[in-house]
Amino acid sequence: MHNAQSDIASPSSSNEERQGFSSRIGFILAAAGSAIGLGNIWGFPTQAAQNGGGAFLLIYLIMVFILAYPMLVAELTIGRLSQKNPIAALRNLSDNPTAKNFASLSGILGVCALSLILSFYAIVAGWLVSFMLEPIFSLLGMNAIADWLTGFSTSRNLVMMLVIMLLTIRVVQDGVSAGIERWSKRLMPALLILLVLLSVYILCQPGAMEGLELYLIPNFSQINADLMVSAMGQAFFSLSLGVTGMMVYGSYLAKKENLPATAAMVAGLDTFVAILAGLLIIPAMFVAQKNGVTIYAEDGSLLSSDTLVFTVLPAMFNTMGSVGPFIAIGFFTLLTIAAITSTISMLESPVNMACEQFNQPRKKMSWLTGGVITLISTIIVFNFGSLFGLVITITTVYAQPALAMVFGLLLMWVLRRDRLLKELQQGNPEIESSLFWKIWPWYVKFICPVMILVVFFN
């Protein structure tokens, strides 16, 4: 992908050229696949249903535009600047020893946070596989297995988590082009097709228009600090910011690519899928309500918000007669694809770091790193009540926004402005005279940190 790589080890061996994406569309689908996951298809619609529907949608779109997109450009730029793993890429921003050490610590924390996210994400992804398989076993009359798949148990959680981790390791070990890019090109179109087909079907059901009205018409009285914090967290989690995932994907991006434009495509595709998921999930809730399923408590709060896709929607599928099992299979296949495209990117960052920092082959580091994360996930499975929610809160509520802010500050305060401009000019020679260059550097340097801190502490 590039030639100036004598100072770093290749992900596969020190004698091979460092891997990269073979095409722009491959990068966009892989990066969007990293961003598009349960945060979009489960988290976003649930947050919207809890926080005023259209009001949350409006604030979320604003947060993506004014905070998440500028920080996405920053993380992709850090990665492509040196085309090294996240720790080395952050160290490369400065010649000052103190700044280098702080940057290294930030990179390590980012990779650790991403690994912890994968450790709980793999458990949830395993649930999705269970609910995808359950209708199949029910149709075959194998009710004992079907009940085990949808019943909450340590054995179910452990087995299905192992299935997800094995699939993820298997893709990542094959490398960037042969593994991640190839599977992203297969899975992302399948995800979009399933999402559109299911949305059209649900919108044709009785009760769907009531959900559509809630989703698209803002209730401005519900806009408050809590909603803004939720929308910001959702935007950062959705775009995989603050945890080095986008940074390592940026390091695989060709120098000829226009970084701001490519980042806009990734953010746009991610946001489009989130909006489309809202058109599926929220109307589906009201279809379920029309079919006799209770979705709201007496005080107006959403019931089972954290387990919406495992309680309310399966109850709806059960009311749909003979077509219900097939809709359920399609729906949970959609969620499983979204989850796996994200777990692949989550494992790639620590594997990339391990390969390059220790000069080890990719296959070995994929299984070793994946094995360590699987062990952490196993500990969470056996201590579910005390660890699952805690790990989610530490990583997604606190670590992601804080680390995204740190990465942006390192780029803008530590890196020389002429180096930053030169990097962006490689994909867009006229960028110096553009409105983007007049606004983006100082915006990420001053405005984004202040906005993140204000929203965060409120």
Automatic annotation (TrEMBL):
Q: Which CDD domains match?
A: SLC6sbd_Tyt1-Like
Cite the Pfam families for this sequence. SNF
Transmembrane stretches in the record are 21-43, 55-81, 102-128, 148-169, 190-208, 228-249, 261-286, 326-347, 367-392, 398-415, 435-457
One cellular-component annotation, GO: membrane
PROSITE patterns noted in UniProt: NA_NEUROTRAN_SYMP_3
Query: What compartments host this protein?
Result: Membrane
Question: How is this protein situated with respect to the membrane?
Answer: Multi-pass membrane protein
Enumerate the UniProt keywords alphabetically: Membrane, Transmembrane, Transmembrane helix, Transport
NCBIfam families xref list? Na_transp
Spell out the protein name for this chain: Sodium-dependent transporter
